[in-house]
Write a structure and sequence with these properties.
Elements: H1 2-19, H2 48-57, H3 62-65, H4 82-94, H5 100-109, H6 111-117, H7 124-133, H8 135-151, E1 160-168, E2 176-177, H9 179-196, H10 207-237, H11 241-246, E3 249-250, E4 257-260, E5 266-277, E6 282-289, H12 298-309, E7 315-317, H13 325-333, E8 337-339, H14 350-355, E9 368-370, E10 375-377, E11 383-392, E12 395-402, H15 404-408, H16 413-416, E13 426-432, H17 434-442, H18 446-453, H19 455-470, H20 480-502
Parallel strand pairs: 1-7, 7-8
Antiparallel strand pairs: 1-5, 2-3, 4-5, 5-6, 9-10, 10-11, 11-12, 12-13
Helix pairs in contact: 2-4, 4-20, 5-6, 5-7, 8-20, 9-10
Bound molecules: iron/sulfur cluster.
């Protein structure tokens, strides 16, 4: 009897289980909600965005205010506060966002951006124009930031380290063309501009669209004219008529140059030069160049540091690519201690001798110099006498030459000087300036080698940070001035981020 009752109970439970329905909260997306929002509480007290706003608020932005037309007491729309636009860009860059459209979108839903704007929407055109419009004011802002960092004791200029990095331009290698092709495109662009007429009388499209199209056509024409100008500059650097004829330039970013990349490949790029103070790895100078080689970049870099900081560094550490005799002399004149190994610029060029067909056994080392008579004796025992000198920065090359008749009759001529013609073999005796000699000797010391060992961790850190955190592997903007400003924004962000890390403490409410 009891068994029957138990089985009835179980059947009842199972049936109840079958008919049981779980109750869940419904999602209603068709309702209108009005909620109070405390904008100040959108981000916590120690949120980084507050630090950016606070830091920018300490700067003198009068350079930006001067260019604002809207004034109190007069009609018209109020301008967007430069402190807000600067903060938006700095905060955006610090999060790896370098697109004006993207920042505009983030202002609609991201709490940090909403806190900055006070929930007001920002047009991406406003952001985009602001980034490139105020070149001088941005320079001034960068200098002011350095002043604050220096006053906090974060920059000492006792030792700076300098490095150059190639950043790809906003142009592909496919956009490079020779003069004939550019002229064809330019002619077509001119015709298009002429045919467009007055945008106000456009019938098929709205005047606004017509105006935008006309502006685009005009800009294309200007770009192609700029391409021809840049082509001339490239030609000046080329030797030989054939080379000049083959010169090409990008039609989308004429100021970009093909440069060798760190991976060994070649791409349209700009050479970004960054000088970093060794104390806290803060950037004290930044520049952009169109030159692929670094030799000519050291002196301008030091001038930038002097301009930004009011004085130059005590010591500068660079890699071999920056060391030339000329640079050694200039740094000595500026009283800056230069640390860096000998690069190709101070070494004897063996490649030249190879190209002339000079065998190893007849290289200059095989010729014996006699100081008393100031002559050389060649492996065949013939005498080479002084034959003029050539002065270079930091070095004098004394030339010595054998008699033409001696070499003509020599059994070794084909191995020693196959291309000398009727003239005798010549060799050079290079005498370096004492300053250059002292630099070379200094670089043999353990102390200099130890300082140089730390170059990479300081000089390459900001470049790596900007590539990794900001994504500055390729420019978004085009043209030397605009890419210079893009780099300056990135460096400004880097320095402010370091200040936040080292100094900022939230003001707890
Ligand atoms: S070619 Fe002239 S310089 Fe050379 S080994 Fe002969 S004599 Fe001497």
């Amino acid at each position: 009897m009891r068994e029957d009752n138990t089985s009835e109970l179980k059947v009842g439970e199972m049936e109840k289980e079958k008919t049981r329905r779980v109750r869940l909260k419904a999602i209603n997306r068709e309702q209108m909600v009005l909620r109070p929002m405390d904008v100040e509480r959108l981000v916590p007290e120690d949120h980084e965005v507050r630090a950016v706003w606070e830091f920018v608020g300490r700067m003198d932005l009068s350079g930006y205010y001067e260019e604002i037309d809207a004034v109190e007491g007069e009609a018209g729309r109020s301008a967007t506060d430069p402190q807000l636009l600067i903060s938006l860009w700095i905060y955006g860059y610090s999060k790896g966002v370098s697109s004006a459209r993207e920042i505009g979108r983030l202002c609609e839903y991201d709490p940090a951006y909403q806190w900055l704007t006070g929930l007001e929407p920002i047009n991406y055109h406003t952001l985009s124009d602001f980034r490139v419009k105020h070149e001088e004011a941005l320079d001034e802002l960068f200098t002011q930031v350095l002043g604050v960092l220096s006053a906090e004791g974060l920059i000492t200029l006792e030792r700076v380290m300098h490095d150059g990095v190639k950043v790809k331009a906003c142009a592909s290698a496919d956009t490079f063309r020779r003069e004939e092709r550019i002229r064809v495109h330019l002619e077509a662009a001119r015709e298009q501009v002429e045919q467009m007429g007055d945008p106000r009388t456009a019938e098929e499209i709205s005047p606004r669209v017509a105006k935008a199209r006309q502006r685009a056509a005009r800009e294309k024409q200007q770009l192609l004219e700029k391409a021809l100008e840049e082509l001339e500059k490239i030609r000046v650097c080329k030797s030989g008529q054939e080379e000049k004829k083959k010169a090409r330039v990008s039609m989308s970013d004429p100021e970009a140059r093909i440069m060798k990349q760190s991976d060994g490949g070649f791409a349209p790029s700009y050479n970004v030069q960054v000088t970093t103070d060794a104390k806290e790895k803060l950037i004290v100078g930044v520049g952009v160049s169109q030159c692929g080689s670094d030799y000519g970049e050291l002196v301008p870099a030091m001038e930038r540091v002097e301009e930004n900081m009011g004085c130059g560094p005590e010591q500068i550490v660079v890699e071999g690519g920056f060391i030339s005799r000329e640079n050694i002399l200039v740094m000595n004149e500026k009283n800056i201690d230069l640390i860096g190994p000998r690069g190709d610029g101070v070494e004897q060029c063996a490649g030249q001798l190879n190209r002339r067909g000079v065998e190893l056994a007849f290289r200059p080392e095989a010729f014996r110099y006699d100081e008393g008579s100031d002559t050389y004796t060649c492996p065949a025992g013939k005498v080479l006498r002084p034959d003029g000198k050539e002065e270079q920065p930091g070095r004098i090359n004394y030339r010595y030459r054998a008699r033409g008749a001696d070499c003509q009759a020599c059994a070794f001529r084909e191995r020693c000087c196959p291309q000398s013609g009727t003239r005798g073999r010549s060799i050079r005796r290079a005498v370096d300036d004492p300053v250059v000699v002292a630099h070379i000797e200094k670089m043999q010391t353990e102390e200099a080698k130890e300082i140089y060992r730390h170059r990479g961790e300081v000089a390459e850190f900001p470049n790596a940070w900007m590539k990794d955190k900001i994504g500055l592997r390729q420019f978004r903007l085009r043209g030397l001035i605009k890419v210079g400003m893009e780099v300056l924004w990135a460096c400004l962000t880097y320095n402010i981020k370091q200040w936040i890390r080292l100094c900022w403490r939230p003001q707890w409410a």
